[in-house]
## 1
Amino acid sequence: MIQVLTGNHSAAYAALLSNVEVVSAYPITPQTQIVEKIAEFVETGKLKARYVRVESEHSAMAVCIGASSAGARTFTATSSQGLLYMSEMVYWASAARLPIVMPVVCRTLAPPWNIWNEHTDMLLVRDYGWIQFFAESNQEVLDTIVQAYKIAEDERILLPVMVGLDAFTLSHTSEPVDVPEMDLVKKFLPPRANVPYVLDPSNPFTLGNLAYPSHHMKLKFMQHTAMENARKVVLEVDDEWYKIFGRCYSLLDNFMCDDAKVIILTIGSSAGDAKEAAKYLRKRGIAAGVLRVRLINPFPAKEVSDILSKVEAVAVVDRNLSPGNGGIILEKVKSSLYSLKNRPFIKGYLAGLGGKDITVEDYIKIFEKTLESYRKGDSDMEWFSINLEATSL
Amino acid sequence: MKKVAAISFPSKGVAGKTGIWRVRKPILDRNKCVRCLICWIYCPEGTILRKEDDSVEIDYEYCKGCGVCSNECPTKAITMEEE
Amino acid sequence: MNIKDLDREEYILSGNSSCPGCPASIGFRLIGKAVGKNAIIVIPASCMTIIHGVYPHTAITLPTLNIAFATSAAAASGVSAALEIKGKNYPVIVYAGDGGTADIGLQALSGSAERNENIIYICYDNEAYQNTGIQRSSTTPYGAWTTTTLKGKQEKKKDVPKIMASHNIPYVATASIAYPIDFIEKVKKALKIKGFKYIHLHAPCPTGWRFPSEKTIEVGRLAVGTGAWILYEIENGVLKLTGPSKNLIEEGARKPVQEYLKVQGRFQHITDEMVKVISCEIEERWNGIKMVINLQKVNGT
């Protein structure tokens, strides 16, 4: 059924459709509507779940870890400061191999306080062992969260999944969303099996006690291997979803890249504006394309490099910053291309930090600048559209 | 269950035969023992073995020789001797 | 209840990594004897982390979740929530040290208590971060030497059971490893109550308190006998002294506190002035208890 939903409510409906059993969350702008809606589902009896209203994000993830260890399908949601505050437990969830699913409404980190969209929060925990998606639309938010449980609970994976949605541009913006029928979703996603383990007195064991280095390293190898499996399992699950619901997303969103000379590579909802810019350039006879990376971790390095190997110039637009290093996605893209014989020209752009708008016009400028820089051989990373001459910030 | 995380199963002697830690050894005088089980309940290690008839035996394989049993025995039935 | 009635089964197996004379081990053995095999244990970073051994083995025979330092009450809430939704009815028991309870874990503990989660939280209080090498915690008593309070701690011991009582949870109790039947009865009572139960177990540590390993129980008994540690329970808001503390309400009935202090190396350096401060602190705590008891008498509870 088509409903008009915000990104936040799309995430809440996804939790409902996934029949999550334990939800634990702490409110933070702009995630609050997710947990409010779930509270409503639980209190009206639509969702048969325990909703643990914790006193912090750190506890929210700890509750999820406890509940998931005892066999329940668990859900939480957070953003920005909340994600960093819970980060100790974010790492724990993955190392404990628990299939927890968490939407993260991507928001700028303080100081100064800022509630607008930036991707630094989620990228800071990129190496914490979670499978990470970034969505472009509210439909994709809903579909990806339901898919995420199927991926997380797959025996080849057994890892938690994070689904990024942009603050306000998705979280608070309404779009028509096709909410699938519960019965169909139940066929797609059966109840969680007893994997990877269930704490129960009938089979007593201890989880997570001390381990020797050799054991630890083996466990890390297994975790890494499971993460590598994700690229394959994500596609399988996406395929199954397509067969039932007629929508699919793959690892990458390839928008007119196949014959493109110049490509903008980016993540998140703003890719929509980049696509508009590409269409505009195509009308002017420039073969432009947009490559939106949907699966950020594990990074689909081969798939990205296959596409980029055929283009002349690439602009990587990062809405995140590793101070002193630049854009996190830029580094990842460059390293993905290392083994190519003919690497394309790449220019990085830091744009839209702190929620600064990146308009269609901006993307057109980025395309044009990239082509110009390509001709000049100027691949220096650029801070897009900041005025350093201005007397005040 | 899938063994993908550190899942450990119950076992005696996780720290080895801890009896070798001992520098003093508890010696039980059965004649003085009144089977009150005070040593059994206070033993930090569970190495005072409680028998069916509530008499006790000391498990020297794991007893660390802390001396709590000897210190608490109301009839002084357990004495500590140098190893 | 009598010692002879207690469960013969062991729930923490011998040959584990505890120090000789370890009170945390004693406490856990007693918990096992109170709850039996159908329970789930949650353990934050603490001495217990080390005690139960190294993967792929564990000394604990009950299903056990090791969890990060600050999170035992939250993780236990999660386990409890999962059991409830799955229709399973096992007690969930946290066994945490004083650092994981009174310091880094206090926020999660308070949150879980306020939500009245159906768990039993047992803090074994060895009055310092013994596992990391005897650093002071907020439950280290005034005057005690630790590796971070070389001249003796200058601040008073945090009264965690009192904080927990302020959460209006159905059951709060103090206990001591020196009084096993009193402790086991409290755990058994907690098993019958739905909601959040908190038990604060005094656990004299030979390694950290600097006394010979055979004196663990003796020191625990002296703490109670001198009134430095008070045994009580608060059931649905009503406070009752238990065990030997019932007869220690008047100062004259208690042993002089020096008897408790002098057996411990951590108090070796203290002056008469400091002993006075400690005595006053004990008296203050008893006065608080007395006030509550008198008020209850007036109110007829």
## 2
Amino acid sequence: MRQPIKAVVAAAVAAMTITACGASAGGGEQAADNYPRKELDWTIAFGPGGGNDIMARTMVDILKKNKLYPEDIRVENREGGSGATGWGYLFGKRGDPYAISTTSGSFITTPLEAKTGWTYKDFTPVGLFATDNAVFAVAPKSGITTWQQWVQFAKRKGKVAVGGISTVNVDFILHAMLAKAAGYQIDYVPFNEEGQLQTSLLSGALDAVVSNPAELIGQLQAKKMTGLLFTGTRPLASLPTIPTAEALGYKGLPSMPRGLILAPNVPASVQQWWIDTMKKVVATPQWKNYLVKNQLTEDIRWGADFTAYLQRTSTDLESILRQHGAIK
Amino acid sequence: MIGPVGRRVRPTAMTAFLCALAVILAVYTVLAFGMEWRAPAGRLGAGFFPRVIGVLGVFLCCVAAFRSLRPAASRGDLADAQRSASTAEREVVPGEVVHGEDAPGEEVPGGRHPWTLLATVAGMAAFLFLLVPLGAFLTSGLVMFALLVMLGRRHLVRNAAISILTPVILYVIFEVLLDAGLPLGPLPLP
Amino acid sequence: MDILSDLINGIGNAVSPANLLLLCAGVFLGMVVGVMPGLGPSAGIAILLPLTFGLDPTGAIVMLAAVYYGAMYGGTITSVLINTPGESATVASTFDGYPLARQGRAGPALVMAAIASFVAGTVGTLLLTLAAPVTAAVATSFGPPELFLVVMAGLLMLIVIVGKNRLLGAISALLGFALATVGIDIGGGEQRYTFGSAQLINGIDFIPVAIGLFGVGEVLWALYNGGHLERLQYIGVRAGGGRYWPTARDWAESRWAMVRGSLLGFFVGVAPGAGATVASVMSYSVEKSVAKKPEKFGKGAMPGLVGPEAANNAATSGAMVPLLTLGLPGSAATAVLLGGFLMWGLQPGPQLMDQNPDFAWGLIASMYLGNAILLVLNVFCIPAFASVARVPFRVLAPIIIVLCVLGTYTVNGSIIEVGIMLGCGVLGFFMRRFGFVPAATVVALVLGPLAEETLRQTLIISRGSFTIFLHRPASLLLVCVVALLCLLPLISAAIRRRRAQLRAERPVETDPSKTNEIEV
């Protein structure tokens, strides 16, 4: 009986020694001329099938097909905590030039609502490629076909019930900003899931919703919903009749960043390697095709410009959310 | 259901468990009262449901704890108390070889094994702390071997074989087939 | 008949040799994933989704539908054999499935479950084919008030699950509700009970709690009772030819349960959100209330396994209605499928069936074929699965613990969830020890947040007035259904009493199937 226990202890000790060696060997500084030399650890902070996942997998596919990254790329969905888990993992890879991740709206909003231990400032920016904008839609049953009619309807009704995804999110901010600028009042109804949000509009429980064009396009094209306003700077290619917010006189509506980040404190040479590589990626037809299919607005900013964009969006969101008491 | 009869009562293990639950739920309720009851414009605030759940939970736990008290005179075993206060959910099944729920007044065929239980829980705790540093497969093997030895000491070789084979099969399923991303630890796995 | 020819076309597409191969591979992989505790259909699809990117859309969807069914059935296998549900929709399968396995009837239980899935799949596919346009209209009438009522109906079923033990059952459910309030409050963005941990802001997931309370809790309970001793056999093994195959009595007892479960499942499954879970729990309670011997439920009653199994399978077809006709995902797994649509370059939405009929009908057809293959596969595999029961428990216990830990970790790669799972294992042991009802805890955990969210949404929309439930036609109808469900146990008890009286007066054995029919 003694024997096995001893064996277990011995094995455990041996294993721990190996761990210690393994840990000290990983990470460390690499010179640019021999980068990349290792497998890339690509974190997707959300589950498969989501917007962030599709973007990341498209990028990886382009990198592989065009042999832009010579080593293996290990793609891992590390979902949980609205991105807190995945980006928290990347944050823990400080200085590791082989840890990378794609961003989306939660990259800004999650640190605003929870103590994540990191913000956008901590990571090494590669670049912004596109932004997520939103469509404002009503049900056709309402008979409303233009934004002006909507504003009239909303003023007449006194208070309108409008829906979007979660509270600490751009959806709420868009509703609040538009209502304030147009002079009507809203009851904002937060949802957890896109499906429930859309059925609620179709069932007549909500007066209007905002959502990503990629989520709504099917409904809009089938005329099950009517788009009244699009928050991008240019009209959507697939739905050119929906007027932009700017054309209707509303400026400064926020959008959400689709970009690429590396772990904190990665050498500038590695950052530059990725900027150069991604410049090739965004020029491919496959990437352009992805943007069109997913109704994204191209908006390219590299390195420090990306950080500046993140900073502006984050402070805007924070001040608006604070005004509305959504965060403290 | 039988309430406590007589004046002198003694607490049972169930009483202790229910009291622990009551304390946890009480803390939960106190925290709930720190949240808003109503949000602006007549909405239900974040604290609404937690308060209802907490208050109800503490109350019910106290009632159940009171009922679980046994008269001190009868040295009747816990099983009896359990059965009266307990459900048909998982009761004795006729034709079952060995049943989980204790049958009152009857000797439990396997006896009680609190130490086995504690050792298993300790093994699980070790699993939790070693999983990331040692990697999933090494830890699985070690924990399995320890548990197997504890549960059946005689078959050392068989135990060793099982604790090597199982992680290997799991490695094939999780890593090779599903690419599921378990921590690999220091083992030089492909 | 146009629609039927579409379906036949779809089947034609799906049965091309390449697709059949994908179908078999999918069912098998799905089953492998599903028997890992913690990995249910949505995790299975999520893990295997990247594998399908290289395929054409129809091939990919055929494979994923197969994975879905395989994983779902895999969850049933673990529910029956080791008391560990793979997702919330198979919780109800543990109630009677596991007691059946303990009595050495794992084989018949698994075969009956596979048959129930097949029957429900057939019914579901037919309804999906014939009634999709109509049911789509039902789906679009589901706003927050209606969803709230559906969830309430599910929660009411807790009363039936809890059985006689109301007090401890209520405490068990409240524990589930309490766990459910952890995380960001969707209403105002406030954090509740997260203690600043970013890992907890999305709340506590169902999977670690269910695996802990059921799987690990059961192992600990068995060890405490000496299940590892060699002279005892914790899980019964029945020798002889009756080991794998259901008896005529099993069939007679549960054929109507299958039909009831299928119909109930399909229509509840159309409701977005918790369709399959609510449907399976509801079916269990319906079976218990119409059964002639409700006291057998929870101790290995075949209809108690067959009903919920049929219901959760048919609910899958039901959930496809809003997905295919409206582009709206009704469950976690269909949401992942929807993401897959986008990746294959398809535009989900109301026009999907018109624009990509091959794809849509291929999906429907492969769901059906998936069920058929599952049944065939089972005929060969069940002896293997059922032989798990012959592994001595002292060997099985460590394996189950290892599987539970690795399965939980794989879902989100979170060590905190493993901790939650093991903590719930210890809690599950005590709940089992003192006669609590873990099933009530997990059902409350799944449905609690939905109930809270939809009630609050409803009250925002109605500005605090409850009359909204009566003003909307759909919700008025549901109010009536919920009221009826509340009364059902009373009614059936009354019927039983009346029948007992009759029997006392005129002691003639009635044909069981006929009395069942009258009751329905």
